Amino acid sequence: MHEELKDTSDQITGTNEQDDDKIPHETWNYRVFVIQGILTNVSKSIGSARLLMPYLYVATGAPVFLAGMLMPIVSASRLVGQFVLAPVINSAGTRKWFLFGGWMATATGLAAAGLSAKLSIHWLVMIIFVLAVLAMGFAKGVNALAFNDLISLNIGKSRRNIGVFFMSAAAGAVTIGVTWATHALSSDSDKLDHYVNLTLSAALVTATAATLILLFRETPVTPATRLQSDETRSTWTKDFMAGLSKLLAVLEFPWFRSYLLMRCLTATVTVAMAFYAVHGATHHAHKNNAALSAFVIATSIAVILCGPVWRWIGERSQRILMAAGAAMVGLAGIWSIAVDQTPALQTVMAHSLVFAMAAAGIQAVNGSRMLFLIEAAPKADLTYYVSASNTVSAVFALIVASVFGYIAQIQGGIWPVVLVSALNFIAAAHALTLRQPES
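Above: the chain's sequence. Below: its structure in token form.
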């Protein structure tokens, strides 16, 4: 969710604002924006690298250690995508073809993972899943850049804000409907086929969203930069080195180092859902074909219900919201442990509460930690603070996922849940100690 919040904040504070009445094709584009945005959010909810991908992966019987690493791989690939294609997107006259390519790459990755799930060659399944999440992450990075420019230049600010909130609520309802319909149509299939069909549904929704963006009547813009001449390349190199120096310089500030520690601790939020999914899959993947659908629906309901509460808390304190979200993810782990140790609780309904609590907590943390940084960091250097925090936390999450994945492989899925839960409670306590800089 933090990618979307960052995109939204960029749009609201951006300098490329136009008078709503003077934007060509705005009414048509707004309709495309809303419908396509609903489908995109549905795709993110169902085809989640936090829940669906690790659950499906465990259900294939492949080595468990990779399951927790899928989401961190997505985050790392996202950063690479932004770094590699930012100059290209910035110098392009149109944006929608980048978005089309990104969403189609995501749809292809989901479809490939789903179709590979029934292969009996586990090393091949592992390779396909890694390639799938690499494609999904790279596409996320590209789409975050291109979508911001496309919408800010072609839809007025007031309509954008209304559309974002409407899409979020509508997507939750559509997610529940698509998930339930997929489960109902798969009633005669075996358990693995249920999960494959849900993955293919996510791929189909994503491909439809990709196609719809082509209906957007984009107003071409004059390319901002053309890295063609030697002089321009030299300037770009100097700017890059200056930016790199600035990126290292922000680490000197004590308040930012404290924030960065919090980002590393809450990197466990990124991997928490994946390990909860691994634990859930060990209990239900081969016993109840409705489990994954129930977990997806539970996350959607939780996000819908908790959104207004988190917004109310965030208006008063982002630190408290961060702490509450991390504590909620930690409590999800405690409940998961209780389910593991109590046979009477080992039902799909009881386990759904784990995913509902985790989804609500992730929603709070992802939003609050970005908004805290936006409020604390100097506006002129915000990009460097965001880049530093995203890069460090993504690397840390990948390391944590690797270690916890190895533990899950040799000790069982419950031990990473214990560790993730503990780290989230530590993150909640540390979030309350954060202070904004004096100036």
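The chain is about 80% helix and 0% strand.
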